[in-house]
Amino acid sequence: MTSFTSFLRLAVLSVTLLVAMSACKDENENVKPTATDTIAANAALGRAFFEEGLNADTPAARAAGFTRVVSPDYQQYNAIAPLGRDGLIGFVEEFYKAIPNLNAVIRDVFATEDRVVVRWTITGNVTGAPFLGVPPSGQRLEFDVIDIWTIRNGQLYEHWDQFDWPRCFIQLGIQGIPAPFQEAASRPVRR
């Protein structure tokens, strides 16, 4: 009787495992992303803007990166940038014309279920075209930026940003910047 009981237990265990495996397969096929998955995807989207877009080696590669991560009906709220995704692509190329060795260094990425925020530093030398109307003379730029995007359909949709323009203007050699900004820009940056 002991061997029959053992056989019965083994049979019940086998059937239980098969049912569990079948249930797991069905559940996994119908799993919807959790908020954590969405947050991770949004953070990855924010990083991709820089890694696949801004820091790409060629204009074509940058355009392809931006086309992948930025919505076709992109809403731009930067007052000096042209509207839309094509406006963004052109705006970035104007930066590269002035700063051929432009590089974006990501400092922080924060995401929620419908937004991503990236704090980053722009570096490079103004050796090409004028930058913001200032003629090139090899000025070394290193200033911080914060970008905020909403996410729609897995792409960056609305955009706001804040540039450390006083520090940038001082590095460009622009005269007449108010003393408090000059003094603040002369202090080391804590990143």
UniProtKB/TrEMBL annotation:
Pfam families: SnoaL
Gene3D superfamilies, A to Z: 3.10.450.50
Signal peptide start-end: 1-25
This protein's UniProt keywords: Signal
A biological-process GO annotation: polyketide metabolic process
The UniProt record lists the keyword Cytoplasm: no
Signal in keyword set: yes
InterPro entries, alphabetized: Cyclase_SnoaL-like, NTF2-like_dom_sf
Protein name listed in UniProt: SnoaL-like domain-containing protein
Lineage, top ranks: Bacteria, Pseudomonadati, Bacteroidota, Cytophagia, Cytophagales
